[in-house]
Amino acid sequence: MKTDELYNILYHELVNIAPQSRFYSIREIMRRFSVNQRAAVKVIRILEKKGFVECRPHIGIFCTMKNSSFKRRLLFLALDWPSPILDLWKEQLRKAAEKSGKWILHSVSSPSETPIPKIAVAGYDAVCINRPAVQNREYMKWLLNFNIPVVLTGCRTGDFHINTVNGMDEFSGNILAKYLYDRGHRQVLLFNSEPENSCIRLRKEGFCNMAELLGMQVIQLDCHTSLGEFSLLRGYEYLRGCIEEYKGKFSAVFMTTSSMASGVYKALREHGLRIPEDISVVGCDRSDPGGIDPPLTRIQYPESPEETVLKQLERLFAGEIDCFHTEIRTTIYEGSSVKKL
Description:
By secondary structure, the chain is α/β, with parallel strands linked by helices.
């Protein structure tokens, strides 16, 4: 095969792969196209001089074509049950994929009664699973068998070599406890209306640990929502039935999720309690409940978790990293739902 023929073949191969993807090695080019080492090296040097590839010593050859029309396919899997935070993830990941211009997103809902979703990943370049219902060792081992990168959000994987992107949930609980303390609140009702997972557990632990350190009293209420239940309705009904028992024993409510805000507001007001004049309320995730008065003080992310997933996957495909466990530092968005005592 002539040099110009090999050049044309490799050029068209590069056009059809994503920028920063690993390209053939010299040995692979020799075997695949039946050429000698001299010809393979010569063509790669021409491609490198034109800026189409980058040779990284002891690592490999990577595509650097900026005009590549190639887009990777990402499968996004989430449980099929009513949750504003899952809807937020779907929408924001779709926007992030469109913004990058490098990804095609396909979303699939898994039945909530299916603990381990046996999904087909053929034809995809990566899969992102949001808040998996099961996070045991068998589940992790099953994910390790995938032949494409897997990213889990809303859970931790311990010592398993599986990619994750999460908010700093324990830290979020910490800073909200300190926020309430600095505004004079010493007795707080911690309320959870979501199914238990690692995010919820860390938020509660972070809040309670900081509250104990500061000498605050915490009443914990959990309505033990199951997967598939409508947490907003269940949370509202459960809290409404408990307020009378604890009335006068707390000045603020810490919600493990902000999406519960409208239900909490309604339950408090039905007992004649005003927000924030009588009871202050904070939420420990980034979802904006919207349409509530007063606007909720809650956690916010300075960077998009969805964009972080895509950026880290691109680094993975570029060979810059071989695994990632990304924790996004959170801050507080101040609404007007907290009163200074």
